[in-house]
Amino acid sequence: MNMRQRKLRNILLLLLMIYSPIGLKAQNKIIMPEFLHKGDTVGIVATARKIDLATLQPAIKLLESWGLHVLVGKTIGKEEHQLAGADWQRATDFQEMLDNPKVKAIWAAKGGYGTVRIVDRIDFTNFKKKPKWIVGFSDVTVLHSHINNMDIATLHAVMCLTVKSATPEAIESFRKALFGEHLEYHIPSHPFNKTGRAEGELVGGNLSVLYSIQGSSSAVDMKGKILFLEDLDEYLYHIDRMMMNLKRNGSLNGLKGIIIGGMTSMNDNDIPWGKDALEIIQDIVKDLKIPVAYNFPAGHIKDNRALIFGKTIILDVTNQETIVKF
């Protein structure tokens, strides 16, 4: 084989690698579940705190207005103290939704605490073969992180409980994300922003939950990623402690960018900490040479815009605005 023939062979091998299914999977590591169409079914489950069927009616009506069918899980209306039934009941309900071929998306009814108690009971074998959208925020961060580790995308968006109070912008972003329409956000600049441009896979969620799963199989690898963080009802020194943990364990070192969402209803001690949540974060990340965007509309706020975790995004932080393109 002469030089020209070898070059031709190498070009053909490269083209096969790029355009074959194996090559495509290698280049596009994250698997995107199929987007929804009218007539598809969405399952609603409670993986954490209890909730009754009456409270779900605004969420059910919303899905039906989009032409979707709703399958209400067995955990709705169940009760074991704070939780929507015993661990095995919540795990079984979630498992049945995962394995039901008619269900195209699973929407968390409510957050609180409890998802971490069931995640290790779940068999994701069928889910990996045919992924579906897992939707929610707050305590659902456990599932986002655990599933993103499987190289499958998830949807950080409003939950059933928050539909009634959510802004039209939050609801519309949820619809667009669920049906595969273009998502792009232009957010006013914040004084703490660090300008710059980054492209990378978006991961993250609730800071307290991410902190609590550090060191477990559900802890997401943040290296080379863009990290989103939000939180609710924490003491300010807790925010400092959790951010210091991420800094000291090396999670912040390999990031390409950071997006800070709502830091809502924070608490302080009788002797004040001396900084609010955003000032705490700003102080800890100030030496990072990456773009950082503050006050992004997502988290425990009414304007909770949808974010696709696992998807590569462009984060462009300028002096005028923050742009996030999916």
UniProtKB/TrEMBL annotation:
<dbReference type="InterPro" id="IPR040921">
    <property type="entry name" value="Peptidase_S66C"/>
</dbReference>
<keyword id="KW-0720">Serine protease</keyword>
<feature type="active site" description="Charge relay system">
    <location>
        <position position="230"/>
    </location>
</feature>
<dbReference type="GO" id="GO:0006508">
    <property type="term" value="P:proteolysis"/>
</dbReference>
<feature type="active site" description="Charge relay system">
    <location>
        <position position="300"/>
    </location>
</feature>
<comment type="similarity">
    <text>Belongs to the peptidase S66 family.</text>
</comment>
<keyword id="KW-0378">Hydrolase</keyword>
<dbReference type="InterPro" id="IPR003507">
    <property type="entry name" value="S66_fam"/>
</dbReference>
<protein>
    <submittedName>
        <fullName>LD-carboxypeptidase</fullName>
    </submittedName>
</protein>
<feature type="active site" description="Nucleophile">
    <location>
        <position position="138"/>
    </location>
</feature>
<feature type="domain" description="LD-carboxypeptidase C-terminal">
    <location>
        <begin position="199"/>
        <end position="313"/>
    </location>
</feature>
<dbReference type="Pfam" id="PF17676">
    <property type="entry name" value="Peptidase_S66C"/>
</dbReference>
<dbReference type="GO" id="GO:0004180">
    <property type="term" value="F:carboxypeptidase activity"/>
</dbReference>
<dbReference type="InterPro" id="IPR040449">
    <property type="entry name" value="Peptidase_S66_N"/>
</dbReference>
<dbReference type="InterPro" id="IPR027461">
    <property type="entry name" value="Carboxypeptidase_A_C_sf"/>
</dbReference>
<dbReference type="InterPro" id="IPR029062">
    <property type="entry name" value="Class_I_gatase-like"/>
</dbReference>
<dbReference type="GO" id="GO:0008236">
    <property type="term" value="F:serine-type peptidase activity"/>
</dbReference>
<keyword id="KW-0121">Carboxypeptidase</keyword>
<dbReference type="InterPro" id="IPR027478">
    <property type="entry name" value="LdcA_N"/>
</dbReference>
<dbReference type="Pfam" id="PF02016">
    <property type="entry name" value="Peptidase_S66"/>
</dbReference>
<feature type="domain" description="LD-carboxypeptidase N-terminal">
    <location>
        <begin position="42"/>
        <end position="157"/>
    </location>
</feature>
<keyword id="KW-0645">Protease</keyword>
